[in-house]
């Protein structure tokens, strides 16, 4: 390329792949993302993360490695100095890298200097949402709201136009940076935001922006947990939300949609700033989440390390390349993975990532030269028995029942099979999950898109099962290790 494009990596947390108006969700209020997909971007509605929790997912998409390559499958094992991170590659290649948002990627004990020019610190201390929400939102210990994370509308004080939390601080910081951008170097803005991560709460106008009547119904709570991942029954019991009626579930989901609508508004702020500065045509704009969120599906909330429903694993993924690259904007159903993100950056910048990785550039899809991209996508998580370093024992704030994450962490620290390792292999039509503990899973997604009927023992699908088992074995054989690019002399 004659010159390298600016890059914006807009990376919300917990954003489900189905909360997009242009993807056919009548309840989603996402006008800015919809406009991008209509006019200048390709939206991949078959995009999947490689781990259903944030740290392993971020380590994966920033390196192009699957979590099993170097054991990045816990919340406490981040990228080390000897491991590849896209931000450092861009900085070393001359990009001016600005990082505004959460970490959950690199080990802070080694610092951030190698990965960015600026690690943004808000000039005014952001507010904490906990201090402004209703003080009784949890209810009494033992009540069916105690672990729900549901808070509802975040109240605003007189004169406030929005709740100035960490996300707002970082988005405003990014807008200011674009307006005052240093000349002579291409920019890379990394915005790993917190929303729509629970607790479920959002301020006006986004709280009332969602039409509750248009929200698609949730996937119902199972009546029988037999054949389903063991962790699902344990989490459902620990959350103690079994008495919730559909009205309460719908309101929780509506607030979650409002949080996604706020993210969409912030996307518009960044895009407008790039347009005003004259940068937009020369910008590669990437929007994707690290993973999804249950938000009531299957009677569950939040996330966990080793279930792989589409609610958790399918993510939004929009790519707006520099002008002249995209043949036709719109929605594409090809199966893609988040490990394809750095490979796409590599292709569109002309840079070499400098290490072996497993991503595949999306540029052939953007050019219209290909209809399909992958025959299957993969996601993995969990731990080995008594693998203590993977039990999050360091999270002392949630070691007792008063901790908000106690329902999940309690199960992580047992000797049961709820959190044992598992891997997903998903095609357009089927999903297979191999587990070290509990029953394996097989879903016919054409007949059962909600993944409610485990057909692992169905003789009518024996051929499909054999094919997916073989495909999973090939996946591990192809991605089991990486060979260094440098050669050691004898």
List keywords for this structure.
27% helix, four-stranded antiparallel beta sheet, single chain, eight-stranded mixed beta sheet, 14 strands, Alkaline Phosphatase, subunit A, 490 residues, alpha/beta
Explain what you see.
By secondary structure, the chain is of the alpha/beta class. It has one domain (6-380): Alkaline Phosphatase, subunit A (3-Layer(aba) Sandwich). The protein has twelve helices and 14 strands. It has helices at residues 31-39, 54-63, 86-92, 166-179, 206-209, 230-239, 246-277, 310-313, 340-349, 363-367, 406-412, 462-479; strands at residues 6-10, 42-48, 96-99, 118-119, 150-153, 187-191, 200-202, 283-288, 317-320, 330-337, 377-381, 422-426, 430-435, 441-444. A hairpin with a 3-residue loop joins strand 12 (422-426) and strand 13 (430-435). The model has no long low-confidence stretch (mean pLDDT 95).
Content-based structural category: alpha/beta
Strand percentage: 5-15%
- Please give the order of strands in the largest beta sheet: 4-3-6-1-8-9-2-10
Tally of individual helices: 12
How do the SSEs run, as a string of H and E?
Answer: EHEHHEEEHEEHHHEHEEHHEHEEEH
